[in-house]
Structures are given as C-alpha cells and as structure tokens.
Amino acid sequence: MSRRQLLAALRSRTAESYRVQRRLYHELSFARTGAPEKVLEYHHCSPIQSEPSGVRNSNSVLCIEVHHVPWNPADANTVQGTYPSPYSELSPYRQIHSSEFFPQRSVAGSEGYGRIVQCGGPLWLPLDAVLPIQRGTELFVEDDVTSAAVATLFQLGGTALRMLTDFVKLKPGSTVIQNAGNSGVGILVSQLAKLINKNVAVVSVVRRSSRSPKAVAELTEYLTGTAKADLVLFEEDLIDNRDAIQAAKSQIEAFGTPVLALNALGGASSSVLLQLLDTEGYLVTYGGMSKQPIYAATSQLIFKNIKLSGYWNSRWMVRHCTAVKSAVMSELVDAYLDKKLILPSVKAFGLSDFQAAIQHTATQSHAAIRSKAVFDCREL
Ligand SMILES: NC(=O)c1ccc[n+]([C@@H]2O[C@H](COP(=O)([O-])OP(=O)(O)OC[C@H]3O[C@@H](n4cnc5c(N)ncnc54)[C@H](OP(=O)(O)O)[C@@H]3O)[C@@H](O)[C@H]2O)c1
Q1: Residues with Cβ within 8 Å of residue 213, at least 6 apart in sequence
Q2: Among 18, 42, 83, 87, which one carries the catalytic annotation?
Q3: Which of 2, 37, 118, 245 has its CA 20 to 30 A from that of 353?
C-alpha cells in the first residue's frame, strides 16, 4: 500500500473516531529581548474563552493542536534579539511571532508538529498530522505518532538538504566535509548525502569538548553508524597543526578531496575545513556557534579559487512558493517514513518546564550523543 493509500485509509478511520478533547492555550513568550532563562515566561489561559479572530464560522481555517516544538539555537537567538527576520529589510530585528492572547508579547519557537483538531474545508480531516511551514502546511501520516523528533524535520532537514543540493552537484565519488557533524543539522547532512548518492562520502569533524574517552568512542560509533558518516575527525587534533592536517588529507584522499564544506561554527574550525577543501570548492556557512569570524587565507581565495557562501533556511522559505517548500518537505517526510532518515535524539519537556529545557541544552556538549530539547505542548 502506498503512503497516499495509507493516508486515505487512515483518514476514513480517524474521521470516525475524531473528537476534540481540549480547547486550551498556553505559550512561552517574552516581552523584551535578553537571556532566555531571564526573559521567557510561561502563560496560559484555560480553557480558552475567546479564540483568535476569524476562527469561528470560517471554512478556510485549520485549528492545529501543537504537539511538539523544538528549541533550536535560532530560537534562543531570537529571544536574545540577535536573530533577524527574513521578512523585513528595513527592520531586521522585528519579532514576527506576536502573541494572540497576551498582547505585547512575542511567542518563542519557530516550527513544530501538530494535529488538526478543527477544519473547515474538505482537504483536511481531524487528526491529520501537520508540519506547518511558512505560509503553508505539509500533511503526512506517521506510524509512530508519539515521535517528538519529527518536529525538528523542516529546519534541520530542510537546511541539510538545500545545502547539499544548491551549491555543488554531488556525484558518485564526491566528498562533503562538515564541522559540528554531531549537531542536528550535521547528522541529517551525512544521512541525506547518502540518499542523494550512496557513493558520496561525508567527513564529519566534531570536537571532543569535555567528553570522556568512553563518550567520544560512543559518539564516533554513532556518527559512522546511525548518522552514516564515512570518517570522523576531531577538531582539537587539527586546529593549528599542519602535520595533523596533512595526515587528515591522506586519510580523506581515500574518498576524494572535498568539493563542499558545511560550516556551522566559524573561527578556527572553519579554517580547518578550508584547508581540507578542494580547489574550486565551496565553503557554505550556515551557523556561527563559536561566535568567531571566518578566516580565509589569501591563497585559498586566489590560487584555489574557493568560494565562500552562506545559507539561511528562513530566507530560502520566504523566497520560495508553498509548492516548492512542500516538495522539499515531502522528500524529507518520505525518507523519514521509509525509515531512511533517523532524526536527531530529542528530550521532551513540558512548556512550563522551560528552565529545565534551557539547562538541558547547555549541558549537551558533555553528552556522548546530543539530544535536542523539544517542548511537549499538549499538557498544561
Ligand atoms: N542557516 C540556517 O538556515 C540554519 C538552519 C538550522 C540551523 N542553523 C544553525 O546550525 C547550527 C547547528 O544547529 P543545530 O540545531 O543542528 O545544533 P545542535 O544540534 O544544537 O548542535 C550544536 C552544535 O554546535 C556545536 N557547538 C556549540 N557551541 C560550540 C562552540 N562554542 N564551539 C564549537 N562547537 C560548538 C556543538 O558541538 P558539541 O556537541 O561539541 O557542543 C554541536 O555540534 C546552529 O548555529 C544553528 O543556528 C542554521
């Protein structure tokens, strides 16, 4: 049975069993920018007395009960006031998720996964699963409805997929190198590269940080197993060490010199990627977790003609129509449903337990395998 047939069958079943169980609303929001642990507040109204304008008597509105919402680095940066909006050229730091129920506040978070609880038109049925994307929604049927990790699919997977396809045409024998290979984006990069072509190799550079030798071994096994990286290198060995870079080049030669480097960190880590990148290669920067600039040697730009580019998924979404975004989403959802894509580990927290979620995120550099904090929004 195809996924679409399965969807049709499930729709008829869920339509019979549908009932709205809750009409509750709560949010994590902020009235001023600053450190998330200081400025975020939890608010709720229970049960909802008034719904957002336009919901009642409208045939075109979907009511979605949000199940899970990830806490991504960009969500923290938005609360800090350092993350721009792709919608506004004039006022780049304008907040875009203003609260319907608590005026003067902005709602934290930017993506998630939910289920329809009320809908007007015939295209949707109650209990359909949705992944809202900017100015559109993607529907899918999920076998394991309890999986919170699916909430991370669009930002992490979309970013990984676009970076692997928009800059260089990867062919059998191509090699991709990335830092933060253990990040949410990083583990999807290494898996999606193999789905693009099983003969594309991925070198994942990670840091040992304060991990124990046992945790480092577990991380390496995870990256080469579940995440499908071909080679794992540690940036502490490579930074400012010409001999180690030469040794890494020899190791990587077995796969081919990298044509694409994906940089989530900046600073010394991005210099390592530049040294290992092939002539005419691309360094695509999508994050700056080290908060350090990127240093490129003059010779890398002149003689190796390396191109430095950036990728911002929010801008990509604003610039593309719903059909194109939906196609990307379908590709990711299909890979996930076909069990070809393992999503990053997550740990769920109640929305009111946000301090614990922030604390959890801050401790992940010690963990063998990172797990992303995800808010379970279903319980008050
Ligand atoms: N441009 C876009 O459209 C886009 C979209 C999605 C994500 N991003 C960006 O991509 C990056 C990764 O996001 P994610 O959600 O996948 O991350 P994540 O799962 O939270 O993982 C964070 C990664 O950053 C590393 N890291 C954190 N602080 C670091 C530091 N000071 N120095 C070196 N490494 C550090 C971590 O390494 P350890 O485990 O060793 O701590 C880990 O590999 C973030 O910068 C995020 O904003 C950009």
Answers
A1: none
A2: 83
A3: 118
Q: How many Å apart are CA 230 and CA 184, to the nearest integer?
A: 17
Q: How much distance in Å is there from the Cα of 164 to the middle of ligand 1?
A: 17
Helix axes 184-196, 158-166, angle to 10 degrees: 50
Based on the residue annotation, tell me whether 93 is a catalytic residue of this protein: no
* Cα(285) to centroid(ligand 1), Å: 11
Residue having the nearest C-alpha atom to atom 27 of ligand 1? 289
Query: Could you read off the pLDDT tens digit of each residue along the chain, which spans 380 residues?
Result: 455 455 544 444 444 333 344 557 889 999 999 999 999 999 987 665 545 554 455 555 667 788 899 999 999 999 999 988 776 544 444 445 677 777 788 999 988 888 777 766 655 555 566 776 655 555 554 444 457 888 898 899 999 999 999 999 999 999 999 999 999 999 999 999 999 999 999 999 999 999 999 999 999 999 999 999 999 999 999 999 999 999 999 999 999 999 999 999 999 999 999 999 999 999 999 999 999 999 999 999 999 999 999 999 989 988 888 788 888 888 998 898 888 999 999 999 999 999 999 999 999 999 999 999 999 998 76
Cα 312 → chain centroid: 12
Bridge partners, residue 242, by sequence = none
pTM: 0.90
Nearest residue (CA) to ligand 1, atom 41: 365
Nearest in space to 313 (alpha carbons), one of 267, 238, 262? 262
